[in-house]
């Protein structure tokens, strides 16, 4: 007993360091290592890892679910010596790129989960070297298609999951190297057709096909028949089209009901040729059941015939050994209907019709044959530019006339525009009162507060009358109290003169003076001849130097409530009716 206990103690001491090493997960805090189902398991779920952690080399199960790995490069696991892995979970790791040699060194890998990632394609060599693989999960990856021999020989693979992978096309030989497959899941994809040999595997027991947009016509007939006869599942599979079969169960559809209406394509659709040439054209027809095909021209069915001008031969080629492009299934009943014409004449130009008809429907396509008509050459004459030059001359003459007329109008208008006159600062100061200018001088004391002299500075007038107007004049303001009379009619029309409003300061007197601040006066231009007498100088009431007031209208008499003596003022020198603006 003592020897046995000693040996056990020694064994425990030897084993303890190694055990504590793998249980610590290589001191990686994001991972937790434990025994699970008799296997050394490292769990690193949603730990934020961006690369495969360097754990103990004897780890058998590694769960990296939810870590943003993004990509796996070549020998991603061999570089950290995780060569004893049997189960690997890489679901939801945001994988977008997977190198074809990423798993090559995982020789004893049994289960691999790559679901819920962003893989759009897989290399046929991606799982090469994983011969012991039994479960492969690829759900929820946008693969879209599987090519021929998509998977390498995996003799132990039992289950393959490809649901929700947006698959549209699956090559008939995609699973040819997976001879041990027992379960295949391709439900919830975008499959419309499958070849009858796609899942022709020796030990297949379960196949899920539901929730795909199956189009139940002649192209799916043989696969439909194979699936119903194979008894590979108990699920309900429904048709998505054509319209008359939508939502029908595969169990309720008979093979003879899965037909394809005829379709016709002409090649080419337009032919241009010359009289006497030899041509050939045809139409490609598909349909199941096999349709009958005819060519017609001007509502006449064309058959082999020979006339004095042309020879027409019609050939029908049935495609018995057609190399099928499995991306676009072509029914075995497809045929090529060819027409050959020797020595084409103008009588054959026009529209040709290829018609296909069967119990499933009818279809037509058209071809147009053009033959150019003979043309006669005509002599070309020199172009006549006379009308062009006439039009240009007329436009030029109109423009010149308009320019000359504009110049004349401008000259005439310029002559009638009266010249403006500017006043000096001294003159503006003298115009503090209402001015009435007369060529006749009134004897008023020059030193009066209301009298002043104004000199005309125009030096261009040299006549005797003009010189008389150059003499200094006495300007007075006078007028009785009361309202101002309205101006005469001749001053109410627009004229080149302006009004000036005047402020008058008068010393206090006993007499009543007019309110000169409430009215206005217009300064008339001095008469150039000084002989024309104006009946009205348009100056309103004025005050004389002696202090009396009166209206400027000659002979006017002012009424006074106080019966004061009215002073009669001789009319001042009159002015012309021409006025100027200040």
TrEMBL record:
SUPFAM superfamilies with a match to the protein in the record: Immunoglobulin, L domain-like
GO cellular component terms listed in the entry, alphabetical order: cell periphery
Question: What's the gene?
Answer: LOC113402281
Originating species:
Vanessa tameamea (Kamehameha butterfly)
Enumerate the spans annotated as Ig-like domain.
Answer: 262-368
- What top-level branch of life does the organism fall under? Eukaryota
What the entry lists under Pfam families is as follows: Ig_3 (PF13927), LRR_8 (PF13855)
Write the signal peptide boundaries: 1-20
Name-wise, this protein is: Leucine-rich repeat-containing protein 24-like
The keyword Signal is annotated on this UniProt entry: yes
Bilayer-crossing residues are 388-412
Record InterPro entries = Cys-rich_flank_reg_C, Ig-like_dom, Ig-like_dom_sf, Ig-like_fold, Leu-rich_rpt, Leu-rich_rpt_typical-subtyp, LRR_dom_sf
Entry keywords, A to Z: Disulfide bond, Leucine-rich repeat, Membrane, Repeat, Signal, Transmembrane, Transmembrane helix
Which residue stretches belong to region Disordered? 547-567
Quote the PROSITE patterns the UniProt record gives: IG_LIKE (PS50835)
